[in-house]
Amino acid sequence: MTDEHFKLIAEVTLVASLGVGVILMLLMVTLFFCKTVEVERRIATPGKQLDGIRSIWGNGPIGRWMRVSHVYVFFVFRKLPRIGARIESRMGDEEEPLPRSLKLWVIVPYTVCVTLTLLFFLSGWYLGAI
Fold it and tell me: What's the rounded Cα separation, in Å, for the pair 50 and 73?
């Protein structure tokens, strides 16, 4: 493969990751948000960070994105070996185990969106745009 092929692949990756990432972000703050609210309702203990985030950011588009981000951080970072327990105790509590399918409604789309963002920036860097 020549350098032109790699540039073409990088250009297609750049455009596709941007388009799919934006669409996925819009889906997370509109259609998928009802699942995030359900998860948040179960893990946002009164007086903890997730409960405060809900009241601070509200229900606008940016507020919804911030709430999705914080729920994602709760699920992913609480599994870290040394600091996970502190993060979980500060952010909220999973008093009753949530169904895996409900957790995946938050984790999978956000992880895909972050991966697409990384691909977007790596493609731009390869093309010399960054």
Answer: 10
Per-residue H/E/C for 25-59:
HHHHHCCCHHHHHHHHHHHCCCCCHHHHHHHHHCC
Structure tokens at 39: 């998860």
- The answer to whether the beta carbons of residues 124 and 17 sit under 8 Å apart is no
DSSP code at position 99: P
pLDDT tens figures, 22-81: 999 999 999 999 999 999 989 888 888 888 888 898 889 999 999 999 999 999 888 888
Copy the structure tokens of residue 119: 């691909």
* Cα(44)–Cα(55) distance, integer angstroms: 11
Q: Distance between CA 84 and CA 74 in Å, rounded? A: 9
- pTM score of the predicted model: 0.87
- Residue 52 tokens, joined: 């405060």
Structure tokens at 89: 């105790």
Nearest Cα residue to 68 out of 30, 106, 113, 100: 106
- What DSSP element (H or E) covers 24? helix 3-29
Tell me which DSSP letter residue 105 carries: H
